[in-house]
Amino acid sequence: MIDITVICGPTASGKSALAVDLARQQHGIIINADSMQVYDALPVLTAQPGAEDREAAPHVLYGALPPRERCSAQSWRALAVAEIEKAAAQGRHPVIVGGTGLYLKALTHGLSAMPDVPPEIRAASIALQESLGNPGFHAALAKRDPVMAARLNPNDRQRLIRAYEVIEATGRSLAEWQDSPLQPPPEDWRFRIVIKSPERAELHARCDRRFSMMLEQGALEEISALHQAIAAGIVPEDAPITHALGFHPLCDFLEGRIDRAEAVARAQAETRQYAKRQDTWFRHQIAPSEHIEEIVRVP
Questions:
Q1: How far is CA 1 from the centre of its chain?
Q2: How many domains does one find in the chain?
Q3: What is the tens place of the pLDDT at every residue in 219-278?
Q4: For 110-140, what is each residue's pLDDT tens digit?
Q5: Which residues make beta-bridge pairs with 96?
Q6: Which of 205, 224, 233, 206 is nearest to 263 (CA)?
Q7: What is the pLDDT of residues 156-165, one digit of tens each?
Q8: Are 169 and 121 in contact, with CB atoms under 8 Å apart?
Q9: 228 and 161 in one domain?
């Protein structure tokens, strides 16, 4: 039997500190479940663990992928499963920590099987999207896969490409793959889930304070470096890491479109709104299952 602790909740709720304390007490290893922290970019802006936390307990899947790659729930789950099995083999207690609900649900409740897409098909799908633009590409998808085209926003480039490449590679709609039976966790896995849920006003205050600290610690400088990498074509302009909270408002400041005060205010508001959505998600989407032994909520 492998016992696994999952610590989840909204951004700035104190998940990381709780995870370090638990890992120190239980000879644990901390496994990242944050979709932004998995990238080797913007470590300050995405609140990746600092040197002190990493010295206190081992951390894995932080900064594990270059920013030009895309980490889906399926690919993250495969990485996390490997780290859980490795931890168990070493006699360590796996502690999963993060706020990306889709990742956590994929791990604890299961995920539908998804096909591997050959790199040449993905490259051809991207090239077609770039030549047609979103409206034309959406129309092309509608001819091949009307079900997915109807589900997707015509301007959602990333998901349009995913739907197109899947039907190109397999001849089956992504909708069929998504509706296939879930692949559950291994039979001998049991989860204890701890949901961090501070009172809303306190959570918002933490979000504001932490963003101010990020600026003091160099967040603006690392955003500038990534912005330059995107301009140079090293990182795609729609790379997932560009969805990091505060990235776009601070880019607007760097490009002179708004002043610093407005950029900070927008970034803090964006963070508070996201924290609220996360809190709501964790209140309603984490449900008991045969693999979950306990769900507790702490402030």
A1: 28
A2: 2
A3: 999 999 999 999 999 998 889 999 999 999 999 999 999 999 999 999 999 999 999 999
A4: 888 888 889 899 889 999 999 999 999 999 9
A5: 6, 31
A6: 224
A7: 888 899 999 9
A8: yes
A9: no
Residues 45, 63: Cα–Cα separation, whole Å? 13
Quick one: tokens of 208?
Answer: 């504001």
Q: Give residue 65's pLDDT band: very low, low, confident or very high (50, 70, 90).
A: very high
Yes or no: say if 96 and 6 are a contact pair by the CB < 8 Å rule.
Answer: yes
The residue among 139, 161, 178 that closes a domain is: 178
Which among 155, 187, 180 has a CA at the least distance from the CA of 166? 180
Distance between CA atoms of residues 278 and 297, nearest Å:
14
* Amino acid, single-letter form, for residue 52: E
**Assigned token pair, 80:** 């996390």
Longest CA span, the chain: 56
User: Which tokens go with 96?
Assistant: 């999963």
Instruction: Give the DSSP per-residue string, 47-79.
Output: T---HHHHHHS-EESSS-B-TTS---HHHHHHH
DSSP 181: P
Q: Which of 151, 178, 205 is the last residue of a domain?
A: 178
Q: Which helix (H) or strand (E) holds 96?
A: strand 93-98
Q: 6 forms bridges with which residues in the sheet?
A: 96, 193
